[in-house]
Specification:
Blueprint: H1 2-82, E1 98-104, E2 107-112
Antiparallel strand pairs: 1-2
Length: about 120
C-alpha cells in the first residue's frame, strides 16, 4: 500500500509539473503572438513611411528636372539677349508673370501666360 501511495504522489507531482510546463508554453505562445502582432504593426508602419518617402522622392526628382529645364531655357534666353539677337518683349514670360505689350489710348493690355509641361516653350 505504501508503494501505491508513493506512486500516486509521484504521478500527482509529475502532473503538476507538466501542467506548469504547458501553462508556460501557452504563455510563451501568447507572448510570441503578441510579438508577431507588434512586428506586423511595425512592418505596416514602415511600408507606409516607405511609400511616403518614395512619393517625396518622385516629387523632388520631377521638381529638379523641371528646374533644370527652366534654368537651361533661361540661360539660352540670357545668351541671346546679351548677343543682341532678341529684345526682352520677344521672350516668353515665366509661369505666372504678367507683361505689358503696349497700349492704345493710354490703357495697358496685359497678357498673363502660364507655362506648363505641355507648352511648346519647354519642348
Amino acid at each position: 500500500m505504501n508503494i501505491l501511495e508513493q506512486e500516486r504522489d509521484w504521478f500527482r507531482t509529475e502532473a503538476i509539473r507538466l501542467d506548469k510546463v504547458c501553462k508556460g508554453l501557452d504563455n510563451l505562445r501568447v507572448k510570441i503572438g503578441l510579438i508577431k502582432i507588434e512586428q506586423q504593426r511595425v512592418l505596416t508602419e514602415l511600408k507606409f513611411k516607405l511609400k511616403l518617402t518614395n512619393e517625396d522622392k518622385n516629387y523632388y526628382e520631377e521638381f529638379v528636372l523641371t528646374a533644370k529645364k527652366e534654368n537651361k531655357a533661361l540661360k539660352e534666353e540670357l545668351l541671346q539677349f546679351e548677343l543682341g539677337k532678341k529684345s526682352i518683349e520677344e521672350f516668353p514670360p515665366l509661369a505666372g508673370q504678367t507683361r505689358n505689350f503696349g497700349s492704345t489710348g493710354g490703357s495697358a493690355k496685359k497678357k498673363n501666360i502660364e507655362l506648363g509641361k505641355n507648352s511648346k516653350f519647354w519642348g
